[in-house]
From TrEMBL:
Organism from which the protein derives: Peptidiphaga gingivicola
Family of the protein in this entry: Belongs to the SHMT family.
UniProt keyword annotations, A-Z: Amino-acid biosynthesis, Cytoplasm, Methyltransferase, One-carbon metabolism, Pyridoxal phosphate, Transferase
Protein name per its UniProtKB record: Serine hydroxymethyltransferase
Cofactor(s) demanded: pyridoxal 5'-phosphate
Compartmental location: Cytoplasm
InterPro entries according to UniProt: PyrdxlP-dep_Trfase (IPR015424), PyrdxlP-dep_Trfase_major (IPR015421), PyrdxlP-dep_Trfase_small (IPR015422), Ser_HO-MeTrfase (IPR001085), Ser_HO-MeTrfase-like (IPR049943), SHMT-like_dom (IPR039429)
Record function comment: Catalyzes the reversible interconversion of serine and glycine with tetrahydrofolate (THF) serving as the one-carbon carrier. This reaction serves as the major source of one-carbon groups required for the biosynthesis of purines, thymidylate, methionine, and other important biomolecules. Also exhibits THF-independent aldolase activity toward beta-hydroxyamino acids, producing glycine and aldehydes, via a retro-aldol mechanism. Thus, is able to catalyze the cleavage of L-allo-threonine.
GO molecular function, one term: protein homodimerization activity
CDD domains: SHMT (cd00378)
One Pfam family recorded for the sequence: SHMT
Length: 424
């Protein structure tokens, strides 16, 4: 018996317990999703055995005829989905796609403008101890202190002052859409590259529910596993195949990586095919609608009276940022309380957060995984009400009652029905 349960019962137990955890809770981490079974199958396949350094038709290993086909499928699907002329589907992760962009377009010490981490930017957009912050001269831009939105006049003013070589549009925790045309104009005015990191909202772009940055940016990166709903990994796109293709390809391999993970590339191909379907569009529409339903409920007077608010007062995307600065709970306490209720979220700094990053005064709450699970308006209304009840009552919340309401939802919408993670 070579099954995981026979070979390694300890790991097998984790696989089973994690499946049970995912089934039994409401997953509301904005960067997570549930991959379709076809993606699990591709990612769990024998393609994991294959070395394929290089690119389709130009490999440094023999036996690549099958994996060449799958990488070509992934590339063609990515290009068609996002209206790009160039795609590189080899980055192992979002961070590695981003590292390749720096590597391809910049020299050590060049000036870069990205959104501050504390205002919703990503680590790879210039955080001090990330490779980006260590190797480049980072002049991060912040949010408008009054609106808590990205203010394109402020971005322009800063760009004129620091003359960056590259401007980054994109975020990890921000509830609004970006103005790519304005970013393009500013980049042109100061002679900077414009790189958009659409990791969070790529699924919305694919569904036509968010402006597509590809036409406005020199380079676009994304993860595949957030709203896009595929395997954990990254990719790079560009509207123009001639300008940066060679530099980007060689920045990924051999610049940043060795052999691509061909099982993951195959899983990406599957996810990108699914992302072109009507069912996917419907899912993304329910994702955005769900976030709006959360915003509406969390803006109600009973929630406001408990000192709980929303950053920017609402959302245009798949998440809301809850502001707990005036609540009795900090981000850590609220995350723990929701965890007890059966709702998984992450604490998150709010702009100008008075608390340290390990505690925070906020929560980031997203709807992509629940939309994938099948939730529509009625279920999101119930989820929003459970969240509101917990955040209003705080540590006095009736955890048992709320857990019961969560269980009714998870029972009604079974996840991976019939899937056995481990063969017995
Ligand atoms: N870019 C953005 C905007 C992100 O939010 C993230 C993930 O949190 C990444 C890149 C990095 O992706 P990964 O975790 O795959 O390295």
């Amino acid at each position: 018996d070579q099954s995981a349960s026979a070979v390694d019962p300890e790991v097998a137990a984790v696989l089973e317990a994690e499946l049970a955890r995912q089934r039994g809770t409401l997953e509301m981490i904005a960067s997570e999703n549930f991959v379709p079974r076809a993606v699990l199958e591709a990612q769990g396949s024998v393609l994991t055995n294959k070395y394929a350094e290089g690119y389709p038709g130009r490999r440094y290993y023999g036996g690549c005829e099958e994996v060449d086909k799958v990488e070509t499928l992934a590339i063609e699907r990515a290009k068609s989905l996002f209206d790009a002329e160039y795609a590189n589907v080899q980055p192992h992760s979002g961070a590695q796609a981003n590292a390749a962009v720096y590597h391809a377009l910049l020299s050590h010490g060049d000036t870069v403008m990205g959104l501050q981490l504390a205002h919703g930017g990503h680590l790879t957009h210039g955080m001090k101890i990330n490779f980006s912050g260590k190797n480049y001269d980072i002049a991060a831009y912040g949010l408008n202190p009054e609106t808590h939105r990205i203010d394109m006049d402020m971005v322009r003013e800063q760009a004129l002052a620091v003359r960056p070589k590259m401007i980054i549009a994109g975020w990890s925790a921000y509830p609004r859409q970006l103005d790519f045309e304005a970013f393009r104009q500013i980049a042109d005015e100061v002679g900077a590259f414009l790189w958009t990191d659409m990791a969070h909202f790529a699924g919305l772009v694919a569904a036509g529910l968010h402006p597509n940055p590809v036409g406005h940016s020199d380079v676009v990166t994304t993860t595949i596993h957030k709203t896009l709903g595929g395997p954990r990994s990254g990719m790079i796109l560009s509207r123009d195949s001639s300008a940066y293709a060679k530099k980007l390809n060689s920045a990924v391999f051999p610049g940043q990586q060795g052999g691509p993970l061909m099982h993951v590339v195959a899983a990406k191909a599957v996810a990108l095919r699914i992302a072109a379907t009507e069912a996917f569009k419907d899912r993304q529409a329910r994702t955005v609608e769900g976030a709006k339903i959360l915003a509406e409920r969390l803006n109600a007077p009973d929630v406001a009276a408990a000192g709980v608010g929303l950053v920017t007062g609402g959302t245009d995307v798949h998440l809301v940022l809850v502001d707990l600065r005036n609540s009795d709970m900090d981000g850590q306490q609220a995350e723990d309380l929701l965890d007890d209720v059966g709702i998984t979220v992450n604490r998150n700094a709010v702009p100008w957060d008075p608390r340290p990053a390990a505690v925070t005064s906020g929560l980031r709450i997203g709807t992509p995984a629940l939309a994938t699970r099948g939730f529509g308006a009625a279920q999101f209304e119930e989820v929003a009400d459970i969240l509101a009840a917990a955040l209003v009552a705080g540590r006095g919340a009736d955890v048992e009652a709320l857990r019961g309401r969560v269980k009714r939802l998870t029972d009604e919408f079974p996840l991976y029905e019939g899937l056995e993670q481990v063969r017995k």
